[in-house]
Design brief:
Layout lengths: L3 H5 L23 E4 L1 E4 L3 H4 L9 H25 L4 E4 L1 H6 L1 H9 L3 E4 L14 H16 L5 E2 L8 H9 L4 E2 L9 E4 L5 E5 L8 H5 L12 H18 L2 E3 L4 H4 L2 H16 L3 E4 L1 H15 L1
Parallel strand pairs: 1-9, 1-10, 2-3, 3-4, 5-6, 6-8
Antiparallel strand pairs: 7-8
């Protein structure tokens, strides 16, 4: 059982005090939206769990697949479908695989911030600020980019991180799982935070498509995942809302998952009422409507 004192210390307020997401319209002729986004962690996905993995070369090879095969194949797919996406990249992955990161930028996709070592941003962790600053520095040094979007490693957040991102000029974040429309964060002191473009949990391919050597989780078959993704998109279209993908080249860049993603994105493109775009475009649409209603 949890410690009673710890339970008594839980604040009796919602974990997110932002008001409900405003129902701003999408650009005509679209009635719904898809934030098409990828997370490039490379080997940092594994060393962030345990730095000793750096010497476990087969474990590291799961992440190394991104630069060798996964990202190039996904860039080909996006070019074939004429789609632009946002790639949240760890600073470590940019430093270790500069050619991969440069290829993403050259293809015209948005680069987002994803930490440096992909460390979990736990409350009070001394690495939170360093992870942000090192990530910015690597993206600027290697790519000449100062990103406006941020996705937290492991999709976790704390108040210290929210405040630091505003201070660093981040326009939008994409980690929370609590809405189907963008909204603006409210910080603990009542001040305005970043625009949040919420993640759609079912569109995280890691949950369905990767089974490491020592993982008890099996891979979901294509039919199951495609059914989930299509159903969620169709219902969101009826709601006039949005979905956000969290796709990883070390998952969806593998042949079976690649075929699944190609089929799904082809279906999504056929839905002519769905705006498939980057985080920067969705945040800009939010800002335009927000300014008009101020």
């Amino acid at each position: 059982m949890p410690d009673s004192k710890a339970l008594a210390a839980i604040p009796l307020i919602p974990s997110n005090t932002a008001p409900p997401a405003p129902e701003y319209p999408w650009p005509a002729p679209y009635k719904a939206a898809m934030f098409l986004s990828f997370d490039i962690d490379a080997e940092s996905a594994w060393t962030s769990k345990d730095p000793a993995h750096a010497a476990r070369l087969v474990t590291m090879s799961f992440g190394g697949y991104e630069a060798r095969v996964g990202t190039p194949k996904l860039l080909e797919l996006l070019a074939d479908l004429d789609l632009k996406a946002t790639f949240f990249i760890t600073g470590w992955a940019v430093d270790a695989h500069p050619a991969m990161a440069e290829a993403v930028l050259k293809a015209g996709h948005e680069i987002g911030h994803h930490g440096y070592h992909h460390l979990l941003p736990d409350p009070g962790d001394p690495f939170i600020i360093e992870e942000i600053e090192r990530g910015f520095e690597a993206l600027q040094r290697r790519l000449g980019v100062r990103p406006i979007g941020y996705r937290a490693p492991f999709g976790e957040f704390c108040e210290e991180l929210r405040v630091a991102l505003v201070r660093q000029g981040i326009v939008y974040t994409s980690s929370f799982r609590d809405d189907v429309r963008p909204y603006r964060h409210r910080l603990a002191d009542g001040k305005q935070g970043t625009i949040e473009i919420p993640v759609t949990a079912s569109y995280d391919d890691w949950m369905h498509g990767l089974s490491a050597r020592f993982s008890p989780r099996s891979i979901f078959p294509r039919e199951h995942v495609l059914s989930m993704w299509k159903d969620e998109l169709d219902e969101v279209r009826d709601w006039g809302a949005m979905v956000t993908t969290v796709l990883h080249p070390q998952v969806s860049g593998r042949p079976m998952r690649f075929r699944l993603l190609r089929e799904f994105l082809t279906y999504a493109k056929s839905c002519q009422d769905v705006w498939i775009t980057t985080g920067a475009e969705i945040a800009a649409n939010y800002q335009r409507h927000e300014a008009a209603t101020a």
